[in-house]
Sequence to fold (394 residues):
Amino acid sequence: MNSVSNYSSKMKTSFAPSMLKSLSTPFYFYDMELLEQNLSAASTACSKYGYHMHYALKANSNDRILESMLRHGFGADCVSGNEVTRAYDAGFSPSGIAFAGVGKSDEEIRIGLELDIFTFNVESVQELQVIDLLAGEMGKIANIALRINPNVDAKTHHYITTGIEENKFGINQWEFEKVIDTLNSSENLQLKGLHFHIGSQINDMDVFKGLCLRVNEIQVWFLERRIIPEHINLGGGLGIDYGEPDSLPDFDLFFKIFHDNLRLNAKQEVHFELGRALVAQCGSLISKVLYVKEGVKTNFAILDAGMTELIRPALYQAYHKIENLSSSGSPMRYDVVGPICESSDCFGKAIELPETQRGDMIAIRSTGAYGEVMSLGYNLRSKANAYYSDTIKI
Ligand SMILES: *Cc1c(COP(=O)(O)O)cnc(C)c1O
Fold:
């Protein structure tokens, strides 16, 4: 992990108390300089081997974030018809848009067909049949990548594990013959690639090595049937260090694992779909302390942000580093909670913070991915604003 020095201290100065009064909390803050640094590193490491990157829009689809991805020449990875439309409207070329998802509706499939997207990453035999039918009706040929369930355990939280047989995602090996038969009997489908995405927040690089070895075996199966897809898409899943918000992912190591372990056939392209690793560290959720209340073991710091702005702790027991930007008092422990009427609305228990008071500014770090995009209107909460470091006025 590369350390980005002074980032925390820079944040503290950018959130000077005078500024706090002018911005209403809670809000998301995006450090565009850090984003740029991270995307440059990802882009350099990826193109070193001639690999292609599609940014997974579902991590964060704000216009400013998408503009940055476009500037680096990334394609898009979408998981809904609206994401396909958003990517296209933002300026992504349809030839770089991959569309995954176990439950694509007919309407969503038509959006992709209309645009002639890079691939439908298809997750079942029945989906192949439906895409064939709809493509036929529209006079289109659909580009297909088979999303294969490689039965590789991502060793991450079970809610974000997607590549073992019990998961709903992908096509299992016992269905391959049927898939090939379906492709052969379909007039409007063209097989372009094999697609794999085994989970998210993966920090154990051996997992990716294991994926490569499975992909090699699966490629042999296809090769024996004289099928050599144009591309292999390894999905996303690279994790970040939530404990060290100032560190960036090691993209060099990540891509090297694939370079060292994937056995490719001639001219095969390699594609990736990173989301979290590209954007997570550039975002912070900024919130104000509304109340400090005495508890049994620890006191509560009650924030004006809750699970409606950031659901990851409530949904996946996710850890985010919490910092008090206003106080330099002596350390105390707090249960840092939100205002929502749910006991799961808790950002962290017994968190050490400098002595905290009503009105203090709190930063919940590493929230650039799966933060703002997952916000809810529960309790009729208003949508939090987003501010960007390069355009914010103090
Ligand atoms: C969510 C998703 C990704 C991105 O995952 P990250 O863990 O954010 O990198 C990539 N591909 C597919 C198909 C996805 O569903």
